[in-house]
Amino acid sequence: MYGTRKELTRELKRMFAAAEPLAILVWTADSVSALAEASAITEDEAERVLAEIGAITMDDHQAEGVSVATVRDLLAGIREAGGAGCPGRRPGLLKA
Q1: Which InterPro entries does the annotation name (predicted)?
Q2: In this structure, is the dihedral angle defined by the CA atoms of residues 66, 96, 75 and 83, taken in order, positive or negative?
Q3: Which of the residues in the chain have pLDDT under 50?
């Protein structure tokens, strides 16, 4: 999922019962920037990486996770596409 805290809260309420236990892992623009610091990532690129992370299906996220390598791959794909998207997606990891 990708969105504001308010949007994500609404979506979580829709998807899960109030008493259902959850574990939520959070990525922010700051955490993406910190991981890609050596790459001189811009704020816009960090937000695009977040959007790409949010496009990962729950099944794929649970099976493969989102690692530092994933963040770097997403950033590389965004840069290769000139910021228009991420054609360099790792097969099987992200939604098409």
Answers
A1: DUF1380
A2: negative
A3: 85-96
